[in-house]
Write a structure and sequence with these properties.
By secondary structure, the chain is α+β, with helices and mostly antiparallel strands. The protein is built from three helices and 13 strands, in the order ααβββαββββββββββ. The protein has two domains: about 5-45; about 55-200, Roll (SH3 type barrels). A hairpin with a 2-residue loop joins strand 5 and strand 6 (about 105-110).
Length: about 210
């Protein structure tokens, strides 16, 4: 025969987690969201700790080696963007890198070969702009890291949802890595010549019941 004690234990846990003077369902959802938030923060910290950080810049943690970047290696548009952000004489001590941790989130450039198959270089940044990280630039004078991104433009298609149709533009922008918000899922449907990025659901999505 089967014991009902486990179910009684679960009922007791539910009773202890909510009270009857408010909306019970909302209380349960808030409680579950708090649990997920704590778990997610713990996982992010664990991931960051398992990543070998080689240098702590003023705006992020740098993982992996940094390579010297000469001015003549910079594309004209990137150089112009960097001059807008920095003084021109600051461009003589730049380094290129491929991995950073910003606010406990990992970001990769397209030049990081180990992650190329995962296509995890498309990000949301600044004012909900979308871009693909080409590489990161470290400036020795400012002790800061900047992301070089190729912008993706949204294709208007009715009401926007988690699936956002996009197209690559020719515009290259440089942004402080502190402006990177999150990694987006990138889909290239070559059969129908369509490209999409996907914003993952928030805490009230399907994951709240997992």
């Amino acid at each position: 025969c089967w014991s009902c004690f486990p179910f009684e234990d679960i009922n007791a846990m539910l009773l202890n987690s909510v009270h009857g003077t408010g909306v019970v369902l909302k209380q349960a959802m808030k409680y579950r969201q708090a649990q997920l938030c704590i778990r997610r923060k713990g996982l992010e910290l664990k991931k960051c700790n398992s990543w070998k950080v080689n240098y702590m810049a003023s705006n992020c943690a740098v993982a992996g080696a940094m390579q010297v970047l000469q001015q003549h290696e910079l594309e004209d548009s990137v150089k112009a963007n960097l001059i807008n952000l920095l003084q021109e004489n600051f461009l003589d001590k730049l380094k290129k890198l491929n991995r950073v941790v910003v606010n406990e989130k990992r970001f990769y450039s397209e030049q990081y070969t180990r992650m190329q198959k995962r296509i995890c270089t498309v990000v949301l940044f600044r004012n909900n702009e979308i871009g693909k990280i080409k590489y990161f630039v470290f400036c020795n004078y400012t002790d800061s890291v900047y992301a070089v991104l190729q912008k993706l433009e949204r294709i208007p298609e009715g009401q926007e949802n988690h699936y956002i149709p996009v197209t690559f533009s020719q515009e290259i922008v440089v942004s402080n890595v502190e402006n990177l918000i999150e990694v987006l899922v990138y889909l290239d449907l070559q059969d129908v010549n369509r490209k999409y990025v996907i914003k993952m659901p928030n805490g009230y999505g399907h994951a709240i019941f997992k």
